[in-house]
Amino acid sequence: MSSSTTATRSPVRAAYDELVTRGTLTSDPAQIDAVRELDRVLADLLAHKPKRLFGFFEKAPVGVRGLYLYGDVGRGKTMLMDLFFAACPFREKRRVHFHEFMDEVHAGIATFRKSVRGKDEDADPVEAVVKPILKGGLRLLCLDEFHVHDIANAMLLDRLFSKLFAGGVTLVATSNVVPDGLYKDGLNRQLFLPFIALLKEKTVVAGLPSEQDYRRLKFAGQQVYAFGSGPAVREAMDQMWLRITGGEPGAPGVVESIGRQIPVPLTAMGAARFGFSDLCERPLGTRDFVRIAHQFDSIVLDDVPQMDRTKSDASKRFILLIDSLYDRGVKLAASFAVPLEELGADDKTAFEFQRTLSRLTEMQSEDYLGKGLRDAAPAEAAQ
């Protein structure tokens, strides 16, 4: 079979094989099994494309059976879902972190309840949130890091996804736990069990039992910080970037945050590269940094300057940025103009900056670099 035929029939596998050929990835049998399931979902979606007439579906859309992909951290689940999402040729799709999606749902429910219609006893806030999603024609919802840890989400998911599935939405999700492990030992868990049954019905549950933690491998034995300025420091950061991305140079991207877009100078393989000024000298806040921390597992930050009273606002943003990355467990590689203990801060941020320095010190340790991402919900972190 020719490579073009393979790409046509199995676009996710073709994209995966290309990364292996370039040396970005090492072929992994467990990942290939997952790729096969993702190609199956894509083929089914393309075979069941709903027909629309004058902006309306000719008949109720029927979703295809999606995929719930679970496995330990660092096994490549997010990377595979990104390959799948990029291979989907239609626009009626969305890829978002699970907690960000639920944050939006809760915000939509709260807004509806404050409206005139929301005060009616018969009003259904879940229906009100789902209706515009379905009206927009969403066919594919990719949710990264599906994890239920609070009762507010647990009690909502069955009603929410029953309506999404009934509207023809197909779900592809990644998680660190099997469906039966969701909301384990949670309050009133018996009320959550119907959702687990629904999830198993509407998705194929597949494990990713790879033995290699690829995320940890990227940082093993690496000096993740460089100090000073000039070509040598830049070269060190360039080499670290290529190690993190498996040799991929990257391309510009964006992070969606509160209805606006934050430019990302370079993004590749779950990592992003910014200059200090891109994040700390622009009007960004905690919620923006939390969004960034949930979109990328690794960040390269160039040209962190020495702080003083002339950089008070930038210093405050730098503190918020490091807090967000640390709380999430994001891996950081960075270049600093001076050693950490000389970064300094003005009197207004001196106390908070000491915590930041402590966290920066920990974030270059083998212990920190060897751990997986932490499950910190954006809704909680950004209040």
UniProtKB/TrEMBL annotation:
PANTHER family: AFG1-LIKE ATPASE (PTHR12169:SF6), ATPASE N2B (PTHR12169). The keyword RNA-binding does not apply. This is Cell division protein ZapE. One of its GO terms (biological process) is cell division. One of its GO terms (cellular component) is cytoplasm. Pfam families: AFG1_ATPase. SUPFAM superfamilies: P-loop containing nucleoside triphosphate hydrolases. The gene is zapE. GO terms for molecular function: ATP binding; ATP hydrolysis activity. InterPro entries: ATPase_AFG1-like (IPR005654), P-loop_NTPase (IPR027417). It comes from Devosia marina. Keywords: ATP-binding, Cell cycle, Cell division, Nucleotide-binding.
